[in-house]
Amino acid sequence: MSERMTGAQAIIRTLARFGVDTVFGLPGIQLDPLYDALYGQRQSIRTYHTRHEQGSAYMALGYAQASGKVGVFAVVPGPGILNTAAALATAAGSNVPVLGLTGQIPSHQIGLGLGIPHELRDQEMALRGVVPWVELARSPAEAPGLLSQAYDAMLAGRHQPAVLEMAPDVLAKSEAVTLPDNWEAPARPSPDPTAVAAALKLIAGSRRPAIFVGAGAMDAHESVRRFAERLQAPIIMSRTGKGVISSRHDLAVGMLEGQALWPEVDLAIIVGTRFLAPALSWGRSGEVPTIRIDIDAKQAQLPKPADVTLICHADAGLDALVDGIPQRSSIAAMIAGIRNEVSGKLATLEQQFQLARVIREEMPDDGIIVTDVTQLATFIQYGMDVYQPRTLITPGFQGTLGYAYPTALGAKVGCPNKKVLSISGDGGFMFNVQELSSAVAHGIDVVAIVINDGAFGNVKRIQQTTYGGRMIGVDLHNPDFVALAQSFGMRGVKAETPDALRQALRDAFARPGPALIEIPVGELPSIWGLIKRPPSAG
Is domain 348-537 given the CATH code 2.130.10.150 in the classification? Predict the structure, then answer.
């Protein structure tokens, strides 16, 4: 049944029917009707305004990464939507469903090059270089159907971001619109029985199989556990896949343990991961047979086709295989030995090891840790135990500096009953330092750790070790981070030792409100000597 409404109302009311309860964003003249529609829907949709468009998009990203639901942001066109490109690229690289809503210049002026405020030469084409689905709604009546298409693009297969544009005159225009009842997910594909049989044949002929899982298996943890226990194969979690299975499980290991196990592996079962490190960095290329389970047929062929490929969701593929595998003998003792060996190597990096140990001990199992691109974060991604899905959140291969703090704010909004901690370096933290204001304004209780070495530390080390100490552009002039936090109205403390960090974390989590903990450090020991990397990564 149709009802007369504006284009803005058509968008917001459709999203409400699709289950959206939160929108992050910044208002502006091209979005005035949209924000008025959000006001009208304020009983069911919360609106969080931020201090920068990039912060809005990162918050939507963190909301989606932590909750598993679609994250939504709304920003003005032109420079506004371009400011979100880093977050959209991170969402695309990390396979996260983030929906961007943006305006346009008036519809009758699009493409004329008149110099209208916020005009781009081709906004849609600019965005298509970052996200796979971008469309312009040319009438209010089109909005519900296009949003259904956007949800298909974001959720039906490999999760990805999407952007919907609507010009301000169309946002304000009224006409008859038919709203959908909800978004209906298309039927999930079943694995090809021929491929299942071929995979079982490979498994039957293997002695030392290993299971490699990434973020694409994050919601298939029970299927991963059953399959691994039946097969008695190590579950090697990528940095973005940590938490697919609890690190307490006898078969769970990370990438450093995976490197140590790799020379003996005679079958790789690859589930929801790009598999780049083993394929490009660990050697034995082409020697190890592979079974690939992936929802994306194109991605499943990269970096090269597997011996057997199942195009389906992770749980569907694993469930199709598990009953065809006889129970194997336990390998728990062997896995424990590899874990101890790697733990000993990590302990030699004493500063990071001690700080990470304190963080793990003070965070509950379901607490969410969001890491930026910094040396402690890298150690945590490789060397810290993770106990539940979606509790270690990273920027993935995009490595977007400045990601952690606003993303952590979004994660806390999406999971308000969980403790949330962000970990940034002094360089990355300053990329989105303005969102301290948003944390206080909206009462978002995130604890921010800032590792302060007065430099872009990773780059500085490379210049020292690879370029003869010819350092340029790496030393930083920082504010007093504690005083800065306090000036925004939040708690700020300095923790110079692991014991001081422990007390600071306890105090921060015991009281409501956001907090910042600065950890001053000198030159940190490098973890990169333990990690095999592709030549393109230096």
Answer: no
Domain ranges of the chain: 2-178, 193-335, 348-537
Q: What are phi and psi of 72, to 5 degrees?
A: -125, 135
The structure tokens 């159907």 sit at: 145
How far apart are the C-alpha atoms of 415 and 60, rounded to whole Å? 12
Ordered DSSP codes for 193-217: HHHHHHHHHHHHT-SSEEEEE-GGG
Q: Which two tokens stand for residue 406?
A: 């606003």
**SS3 at position 414:** helix
**Cα–Cα distances in Å, from 242 out to 91, 213, 239, 261, 449?**
17, 8, 6, 17, 21
d(CA 268, CA 282): 13
Is the pLDDT at 538 greater than 50? The verdict is no
Contacting residues for 426 by C-beta, under 8 A, at least 6 apart: 450, 451, 452, 453, 454, 455, 476, 478, 481
Q: What is the CA radius of gyration of the chain?
A: 24
pLDDT digits (tens, 9 = 90+) for 388-432: 999 999 999 899 999 999 999 999 999 999 999 999 999 999 999
Q: Is residue 41 within 8 Å of 179, Cβ to Cβ?
A: no
CB–CB of 171/33 below 8 Å? yes
Burial code (b: 16+ CB inside 10 Å, e: under 16) for 336-372 equals eebbeebeeebeebebbbebbbbbbebbeeebbbbbb
What kind and span of H or E run contains 486?
Answer: helix 481-488
Q: How far apart are CA 339 and CA 260, in angstroms?
A: 10
CA separation for the pair 255, 253 (Å, rounded): 7
2-178 and 193-335: same fold? Answer: yes
Q: What is the pLDDT of residues 132-177, one digit of tens each?
A: 999 999 999 999 999 999 999 999 999 999 999 999 999 999 999 9
Please tell me whether the overall predicted TM-score, pTM, comes out greater than 0.90 for this model. Answer: yes
Contact 257, 209 (CB under 8 A): no
Task: Describe the strand order of the beta sheet including 446-452 as a list of residue ranges.
Answer: 392-393, 368-371, 420-425, 446-452, 515-520, 491-494
DSSP string, 3-19: EEEEHHHHHHHHHHHTT
**Which fold is adopted by the domain 2-178?**
Rossmann fold (3.40.50)
Q: Burial of 319 by CB count in 10 Å (0-12 exposed, 13-18 middle, 19+ buried)?
A: middle
- Count other C-beta atoms under 10 Å from residue 35's C-beta: 20
Helix (H, G, I), strand (E, B) or coil at 137: strand
Burial classification of residue 476, based on how many CB atoms lie within 10 Å of its CB (0-12 exposed, 13-18 middle, 19 or more buried): middle
- Sorting pLDDT into bands at 50, 70 and 90, what band is 535? low
For 193-335, CATH gives 3.40.50.1220
**Distance between first and last Cα of the chain:** 60
